[in-house]
Design a protein that fits this description.
- By secondary structure, the chain is of the alpha+beta class.
- It has one domain.
- 33% of the residues lie in helices and 27% in strands.
- It is built from two helices and five strands, in the order E-E-E-E-E-H-H.
- Strands 1-5-4-3-2 form a five-stranded antiparallel β-sheet, covered by helices on one side.
- The radius of gyration is 15 Å and the shape is globular.
Length: 100
């Protein structure tokens, strides 16, 4: 379901980084996490957000982002096993290098 970007409660903490784009993570004031995707739709290029998942912790949220980045490439749908594994490793390294 698409929502307006300003529909996220102001009490939530947003975690955004260019490495994760078009995804970002929100941590609610009650402690839960949500992974969102920025989406542009319509003739007016209206920005929306799409809920991707409700992971149980920050590590699971990062894994969700990595999985979405890995499988969301519209230009490539067929990988060799090595290409897929190398891409997974590259995405994982780019995300974890930020938090280390």
């Amino acid at each position: 379901m698409l929502r307006k970007p300003d529909s996220i409660p102001s009490s939530d903490t947003l975690i955004k980084d260019s490495v994760m784009e078009p995804f970002f993570i929100a941590k609610s004031a009650s402690g839960g996490f949500t992974v969102y995707e920025n989406v542009i739709k319509g003739d007016n290029n209206t920005p929306y957000i799409k809920t991707v998942s409700y992971p149980g912790n920050f590590g699971a949220a990062l894994k969700t982002v990595a999985r979405e980045l890995l499988n969301g490439d519209p230009n490539k749908k067929v990988y060799s096993l090595k290409e897929y594994a190398d891409r997974w490793k590259s995405i994982g390294n780019s995300l974890t290098s930020i938090i280390e």
